[in-house]
Amino acid sequence: MAFLFSGNQCLLFFLLLLLLALSLFSATSAAIGALDNSTDLSSLLAFKAASTTSGGDASGIIIAANWTTDAPFCTWVGVGCSRRRPRVVSLNLSSFSLQGTISPHLSNLSFLSSLDLSNNSLSGTIPDTLGRLPRLATLLLRQNLLSGPIPPSIFNMSSLVIINLSYNNLSGSLPIPAMLPRIDNISITDNLLTGQVPYCLAQCSTLRRIDLARNKLTGSVPSSFGNLSELVKLSLGQNQFTGAIPASIGNLTKLQYLSLAFNDLEGEIPEEMGNLVNLQYLYLDMNGIEGSIPISFGNASKMILLSVSSNNLTGPVPATLANSMPFLRNLRMAGNALSGGLDFIASLTNCRDLNTLVAMANQFEGVLPDACGNLSTNLEYFLVSQNHIIGSIPAGLGNLSSLISLALSTNELTGTIPRTLWRVAKLQTMYLGSNRLTGSIPTNIGLMTNLALISFAENEFSGQIPDSIGNISRLQILQLAVNKLSSSIPLSLLSLTSLIYLDLNKNRFEGLLLPQMAKLKAIDYIDLRSNQLSGNISSALGELQSITYLDLSNNSFHGQIPQQLGRLFNVKYLNLSHNFLSGVIPKSFSNLSYMNSLDLSFNMLEGEIPEGKIFSNVSITSLMENRALCGAPQFKFPPCPTNVTTSTSRAKLRLLKYVLPSIASVVVFLACFSLLVKKIIRKKAKTSFMEESPCLNYHRWIPYFELARATDNFSEANLLGRGSIGKVYKGSLDDGLVVAVKVLNLEVEGASRSFDAECCTLGQVRHRNLVKIISTCSNLEFKALVLEFMPNQSLDKWLYSENQCLTLLQRINIMLDVSMGLDYLHHQHHHVIVYCDLKPSNILLDEDMVAKISDFGIAKLMLIDNNSTTPTNNTGTVGYMAPEYGSTRGVTIRGDVYSFGILLLELVTGKKPVDTMFSGELNLRQWVCNAYPTTMMEIVDNNILRTEFTNLQQHSDGVNILHRCLSSIIEVGLHCSKDLPNERFLMKDVVPMLQEIKNRVLVN
Fold this sequence. Notes:
- The chain is of the alpha/beta class.
- Among the domains are: 33-164, Leucine-rich repeat, LRR (right-handed beta-alpha superhelix) (Alpha-Beta Horseshoe), CATH 3.80.10; 686-788, Phosphorylase Kinase, domain 1 (2-Layer Sandwich); 795-1002, Orthogonal Bundle (Transferase(Phosphotransferase), domain 1).
- The protein has 15 helices and 48 strands.
- Strand 38 (604-608), helix 4 (613-617) and strand 39 form a beta-alpha-beta unit.
- Helix 11 packs antiparallel against helix 14 (961-976).
- This is non-specific serine/threonine protein kinase.
- It is a single-pass membrane protein.
């Protein structure tokens, strides 16, 4: 049967068919969409299961509560979806404390374009399946614990733009890129990569940044890198590259940052590098590069830092080097064999922001040009020591008003010190030693009150040390050895209580060794040998408890060796030879357990050679040429006489016949009296705790015999440490409580006063971050403090032990604990308490790694009124003590703040302030200042950068989270350690700052 439709009917039928088709298509699309959504959901849940979070932190709670099927996954924290469809396009879980591994199921997120898992604790390998993500443009896995090789599939992703795998433990070789047409940034610094850099990496023509620093890469720097015309940063430092710098590097005209430092490169610097007109930072340090500095370097008109130190460079520096470098701030050329004159200094006068000029340890000759006086007034470091510079010191150096360190030592300079130099009021270190300078030390030196180090040794200075030197209250090191100085040692010099190093040897000083030497409480090193000093050796030297080196040899001292020298418990080297000393060798020398060198030769000593540690190791030459020493048969000295002659014996017998009865009567009387006294003493000893330590009368009483049992009779096996006034033992009391027992050596002067002061002080303070006192035990013959035992020992051992390592979060917690302890002492206690000796060895850690301040001796703690100062003879430990200590102002709470600032910088850098690297022109604070903020990450402790940074848990509002955290800590440390006390923070302000830093670490 045939049906006929009108035109309208045909149209209606067609519309019905179209609606049916659309309905079927929508249903099919919905089904497919549901299937895709379920794939993304299952992938995310698999990732959550594989990467567990550390319990208790805010990030972990958020993920546990938020990543559930009760809500669409597009609403989950860190998950970003497309606007057009519910598909995952980004996953940002940076700084979420993630642990576990990276799930390979992430490869099912087929629309994923950005994956950021930085700043976590993820371990295991990088899944090879990530290379299957067809749209992935950004892959950020930096700062984790990932290991194993980099999957080759990742270097085959055509969509990839940024890959950052830095600060992990990745090993193996760098994969050969097969297809990275869009790549912009490759950063794999601080890993364990080996092998060579693939030459075909240069095929990635879109690359702008390559950072492969701090690995173990070998081979040569690929010459094919010269094809990367868009490159702005190339960082290959601290690897094991060999060969020459390829000339093709000169093709990278957009390059701004180039680091090839700390490798094994050789050959010459290519002339073509002068084509790098946009270069701002150039690091070529610590290689074996030869040849001269190219003249073409002068084309780099945007240069800010140029460092070629520690190579084998020769020839002159181009005179026009910096003519076209107006922005140059840092020029380092130390440790080469550069020669010629210093004409290039004239070109540096164009650099108005110049901060550092280091040209030491070369072969420069000629004179210091007058242009030195026209250098930037911002110049802080002018270091040209160890060259062949002649002539006089230019007067123009006095124009450099910002100069902090001046080093002209080990040259051939002549003439006198120009008067204009004393205008440089900020100068802290002045090295003029090992020249041929003449004249006297000007009295104007007293105007330079910021000087901490004066080195004028090995010159031809004459006259006397000016009295004005006593105005330099911050002076710590004074080297005037091997000159022609005369007269007596001025009293003003002996008032410098901050002085730690005094070397006046081989001069013509005369007169007595005054008892005022005892004021040098911080002194560590004294060398007065080969002068014309005379008289008795002052017994006041025995009060120099910090000294480790003392040389008084080759003078004209006479009389006996003071017994008080036996109190120098820290001395390691003692030389009294070539004098006119008489009498016996003090037996107290046997107690000097740290002494390893003793020389008493060429004197007039007599009597028995004592026994003990040093006398069992001393050589025969150290005792030779004395009058009548005896004993020590190992050195073939004659035995000491023990028998008397017959006539002498008879005379003594006749004397005893008449004297003995009288003596016997006295002895009987004294014996009876002694019994009575002992009875009283025993009765007093039972209550001595209550009588002698009134501040602690609410603590438990522990008798001597229990302490003896607890420490196995104070066995060396239980010894925890020793100090200048006693020893500390570990003990277990009768009730099982483990304690630390601090036993004082009552023979040490001041020990008893220290005991009483520490008892009273600790009896009054109560705080979580101060070591708690449990009890005391005290009588006339024995004094001990019983303190809580700290099983994790001192912070010093954790910072510098190979078997122990602190995470960044632990370091922040320790900083916060110490700051709260000091805040309590300074601001919350009813007295203001100045601690005076903050350092890692005085910070102890309990079983939970809670930090507590310890060692509250009389020499380290004073009770004062608010905002006042207290004079003290003990200024703390070298490197940590504030610059103003030793001045007439005494000590204040801001001195503790300075020590705390140095401690912060030490915790971040892992460097002690007395590290040997700071024995020259730099100290720890200056070193950090030089690196902050541009090269800050280069000075951070490797334990933080390589493995421990992953404990950092903070909000992710920038590319370099770790950098911001460390920067905040360093800022606090630098502010706390400022030279002027009034410019430092107070501890009550530091505590909330550190709390905020910790919160940013823990909370997203």
